[in-house]
């Protein structure tokens, strides 16, 4: 047990330190690692949205996928699979991104923001916890997106190939790839460092299965703190890393935080939406990225939903900014919460109907 706890804390510690180092060497403050932000930047760089300040191919994403892929291959855990409610996963991934971009960060960035003194992250944590609690209610009633089945190898290699392609596009920088000249998209650690950090994080997360949604879910559902220790490790070591490497950037408070706003209601509701969708999907954005590297086609569909959500968020004014949350963003979050709950209720109802039918047929057979 001590060894298990030590490993998960060390995993979180490595992520926290690497996040602080990435900020030290160029990534935006409080954004050493943000999966939602990174996919948003990639979508912009590929021309899927035209928000000029958030367009860059983040090599960390390639690192996450390829790190998980390589270690999964070595350990014999690369298993091409898929077919588990792909459209529902796409929709949930879409709205997960909307919630994250209204809060301005994925659940991992939420923890990293707090480690740098951004107290708005506390509101986000409360919202994330509330959303996870809502998702758990559906799990208790039998919510499931169904079992994946074995797929052709092409399914499993889709995301690793995608990771290589975008990495090559970053290095080659053809004219059709867009790079921000100002704003967060123009701030980036050197490619080698960012890719290396991503490879390390991808590899260790593939082995430990650490997930932000899983950490909160397990504490609430079964009082298991295993993954939560990893999240505490991320916070503690990111804090230590910031004190060592980025002390001048530490800013404790609600106001004037980098790439953040202090509209508490929508910070809360944005992360509530993110929490519900993450539980229903079976993992946060970082976990989905690692699963995609292992050959999980369902996770790849979720990532397509994330990327599409990022494109919509910036093309239709749904994403928040340091100036606050747009009216369109507020409406999108409410719609997303309603749709996520409707999906949960619909699936639970279908599962119950199927279970009742099986039980009824069993009773008839026994009677005969």
What percent strand?
A: under 5%
Gross morphology: globular
Largest beta sheet: strand ordering: 1-2
Range of helix content: 55-70%
Number of distinct beta strands: 2
Spans where pLDDT lies below 50 across 5 or more residues: 364-368
Total count of domains: 1
Major sheet size, sense and barrel closure: 2 strands, antiparallel
User: Taking all residues together, what is the mean pLDDT?
Assistant: 96
How many angstroms does the end-to-end distance come to?
51 Å
Label the structural class.
mainly alpha
What is the radius of gyration computed over CA atoms, rounded to a whole number of angstroms? 20 Å
Secondary-structure element sequence? HHHEHHHEHHHHHHHH
> Count of helices?
14
SSE blueprint:
Layout: H1 2-24, H2 35-45, H3 59-74, E1 81-82, H4 86-103, H5 107-115, H6 120-140, E2 149-150, H7 153-172, H8 191-208, H9 212-222, H10 226-245, H11 264-281, H12 285-293, H13 297-315, H14 327-367
Antiparallel strand pairs: 1-2
Helix pairs in contact: 1-8, 1-10, 2-13, 3-7, 3-8, 3-12, 4-11, 4-13, 4-14, 5-6, 5-10, 6-9, 6-11, 6-14, 9-10, 11-14, 12-13
Q: How would you describe this structure to a colleague?
A:
By secondary structure, the chain is mostly helical. It has one domain (2-360). The chain is 69% helix and 1% strand. The chain has 14 helices and 2 strands, in the order αααβαααβαααααααα. The chain has helices at residues 2-24, 35-45, 59-74, 86-103, 107-115, 120-140, 153-172, 191-208, 212-222, 226-245, 264-281, 285-293, 297-315, 327-367; strands at 81-82, 149-150. Strands 1-2 form a two-stranded antiparallel sheet. Helix 3 (59-74) runs antiparallel to helix 7 (153-172) and helix 5 (107-115) packs antiparallel against helix 6 (120-140). The longest helix is centred in the C-terminal third of the chain and has 41 residues, at 327-367. The chain is globular, with a radius of gyration of 20 Å. Mean pLDDT is 96; it is low at 364-368. This is YedE-related selenium metabolism membrane protein. The chain crosses the membrane at residues 90-112, 118-136, 157-179, 185-205, 226-245, 265-286, 298-319, 331-351. Keywords: Membrane, Transmembrane, Transmembrane helix. InterPro entries: Seleno_YedE, Sulf_transp_TsuA/YedE.
């Amino acid at each position: 047990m001590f060894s298990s706890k030590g490993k998960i804390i060390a995993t979180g510690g490595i992520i926290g330190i690497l996040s602080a180092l990435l900020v030290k060497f160029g990534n935006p403050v409080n954004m050493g690692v943000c999966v939602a932000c990174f996919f948003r930047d990639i979508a912009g760089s590929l021309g899927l949205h035209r928000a000029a300040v958030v367009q860059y191919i983040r090599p960390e994403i390639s690192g996450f996928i390829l790190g998980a892929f390589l270690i999964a291959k070595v350990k014999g855990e690369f298993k091409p699979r898929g077919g588990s409610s792909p459209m529902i996963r796409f929709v949930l991934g879409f709205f997960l991104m909307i919630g994250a971009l209204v809060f301005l960060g994925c659940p991992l960035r939420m923890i990293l923001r707090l480690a740098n003194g951004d107290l708005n992250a506390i509101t986000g944590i409360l919202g994330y916890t509330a959303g996870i609690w809502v998702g758990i209610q559906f799990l208790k009633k039998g919510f499931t997106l169904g079992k994946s089945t074995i797929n052709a190898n092409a399914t499993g290699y889709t995301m690793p190939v995608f990771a290589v392609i975008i990495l090559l596009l970053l290095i080659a920088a053809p004219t059709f790839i867009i790079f921000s000249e100002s704003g967060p998209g123009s701030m980036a650690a050197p490619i080698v460092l960012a890719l290396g950090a991503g490879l390390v994080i991808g590899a260790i997360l593939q082995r430990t299965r650490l997930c932000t949604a899983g950490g909160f879910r397990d504490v609430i559902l079964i009082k298991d703190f295993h993954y939560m220790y990893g999240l505490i490790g991320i916070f503690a070591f990111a804090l230590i890393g910031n004190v060592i490497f980025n002390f001048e950037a530490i800013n404790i408070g609600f106001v004037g935080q980098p790439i953040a706003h202090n509209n508490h209601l929508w910070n809360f509701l944005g992360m509530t939406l993110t929490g519900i969708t993450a539980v229903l999907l079976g993992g946060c954005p970082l976990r989905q990225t690692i699963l995609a590297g292992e050959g999980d086609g369902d996770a790849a569909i979720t990532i397509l939903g994330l990327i599409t959500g990022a494109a919509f968020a910036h093309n239709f004014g749904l994403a928040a900014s340091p100036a606050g949350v747009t009216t369109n963003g507020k409406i999108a979050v409410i719609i997303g919460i309603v749709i996520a709950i409707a999906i949960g209720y619909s699936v639970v109802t279908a599962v119950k109907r199927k279970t009742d039918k099986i039980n009824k047929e069993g009773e008839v057979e026994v009677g005969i």
